[in-house]
Amino acid sequence: MTATRTHSMKVNIKHSGKTHLIEVDPSKSVSIFKDAIYQVTGVPTDRMKVMIKGILKDDADLSKLGLKPDQNITVIGTAGPLPTAPTEQITFLEDMDQDQVALAEGNPAGLINLGQTCYLNSTLQALKTIPQLSVALDSYSTTANSPEGKVTNSLKNLFSGLNQTADAVAPFNVLSNLRILAPQFAETDNAGRYSQQDADEAWTQLLSALKLSLGGSNGDENAVDKMMGLELTSKLQCVEAPEEPATTSKERQLKLQCNISINTNFLVSGILDSLNQQIEKTSPSLGRMAAYSSESRISRLPQNLVVHMVRFYWRRDIQKKAKIMRKVKFPLQLDTIDLATEEVRTQLQPVNSAVKQILKERDDRAKIIKRNAGKATSDDATKEVDIRRDEREKIAELVKEKGIADDTNVSGMYELYAMVTHKGASADSGHYIGWTRKESDVPQASGEEEWFKFDDDKVSVVTADKILNMDGGGEDSVAYILLYR
After folding, report:
1. 230-238 and 247-253: which strand pairing?
2. N or C: lower Cβ tally within 10 Å for the chain?
3. What are the Ubiquitin-like domain coordinates in residue numbering (predicted)?
4. Angle at CA of residue 21, ends 18 and 24, nearest 5°
């Protein structure tokens, strides 16, 4: 029997808005492939994420991944020094202007307000943090003239442009295409000025367009469902006739709701309130309308989990949306295992416990760094790379042992990564701001992580303590959309 020979080919490596053509031999190891990527991107292999059907693992077999000539492959990671000597004169920070310094230091660009468009700007900054979405958009190419296709293409171009500048960008194409897709976003007041809109409604419309445009082919799962889709398994039981057999159903959604009542103090309790409902329907055993209890639990945990804080409701007396000001605390690290079905809880429990221990050890290391030096050194960063590699290997072994799907959340633990907040008393007024977590190569104590604040075109840095303080209780900025991953 003759062995099949795998020929080398050239592929396109996309990183930080640039494309590099490199040669890859699928019969070689992943480490050789990553080294070739390092040569052109400068991203060290230990902090490199190569996106091929998810994050490429070091022990993967390249020959079984179906690589094709000229395939676009996205690489995520902060570049270090390139392995070759510089060909241009070195420019020092003190010789750069403000915009050059911001780009060199990796500060992200803001978005210009085009007239009551803070609801859109804040939503776009949060969406941009989803790595799987960036990968899907990079490979998106279509001549479709549908409104959804135009929105998707404008998002692709906007995100690509944001990666290449520190200057504020005006999202003209995204806004104009969104207004064609959903004319409500083109509403104006009596003076002809564009009206303020709801960030959650903008989020929903954008995700709906992306879902249609990035649909799976050849039986593959839809890209948006795969990265953000959670599955709910619901049990419906008649309260008035307990002997009546319960019915079970499954439903896919792209976000969880956190209902807020006079008894809601914490995020998880608000989510459980939305998952446990009382409804009325016709009972086949009683032959009349009867009360039923509906209990839903998560049977698929996505890699990216969106939670909508339901803070607005319609007030008939004033004929407008009013805001629920109640304080509802939310965590930087969210454990969803109690929101899952019993089957999922049993499967995830060992990994859940291991991840909690890892997070505790990271917090301990951060406290030691702070106590000993006050600031992390390059040695701390180097040690952290080795530690996190060992952590990933430990979790990978547990995941493989338990047979958990690697396109889901394998532990039930999430980290808050982006947020949209609302300031004001009404959905028809006020101001939306976006917030995204800042990447760090070293562990940081809980509450001391740095975040970017996107107040339209103004970008600044705050600590996580500021994020946790936006839990409500007044008209100041309050958490509205939470993105965990």
Report:
1. antiparallel
2. N
3. 9-76
4. 130
Residues noted as catalytic: 118, 431
Q: Tell me the pLDDT of the chain averaged across its residues.
A: 86
Half-sphere exposure of residue 472: CA atoms within 13 angstroms, side-chain side? 20
pTM, entire model? 0.76
Query: CA 115, 117, 122: angle at the middle one, nearest 5?
Result: 150
- pLDDT value of residue 417: 96
Strand partners, 266: 329
Q: How many CA atoms lie within 13 A of 394 on its CB side?
A: 16
Rounded Cα–Cα distance for residues 178 and 360 (Å): 43
Residue 411 has pLDDT above 80, yes or no: yes
Stronger pLDDT, 319 or 363, i.e. the higher one: 363
Tokens found for residue 39: 């040569």
pLDDT tens figures, 423-437: 987 777 889 999 999
Q: How far apart are CA 77 and CA 50, in angstroms?
A: 9
- Give the integer Cα–Cα distance in Å for 227 and 130: 9
Contacts of 460 (CB under 8 A, 6+ apart): 452, 453
196: left (phi over 0), alpha (psi -120 to 50) or beta: beta
Q: Domain map of the chain by residue range? A: 9-76, 106-213, 234-484
Closest CA to 445 of 369, 340, 382: 369
pLDDT tens digit sequence for 179-213: 999 999 999 888 888 999 999 999 999 999 999 99
| Assigned architecture for domain 234-484 | Alpha-Beta Complex (3.90)
Collect all residues with Cβ–Cβ distance below 8 Å to 416 and sequence separation of at least 6: 330, 331, 332, 333, 334, 437, 467, 482, 483, 484
Give the domain 9-76 fold: Ubiquitin-like (UB roll) (3.10.20)
Asked if residue 83 has pLDDT above 70, the reply is no
Q: Is 6 exposed, middle or buried (0-12, 13-18, 19+ CB in 10 A)?
A: middle
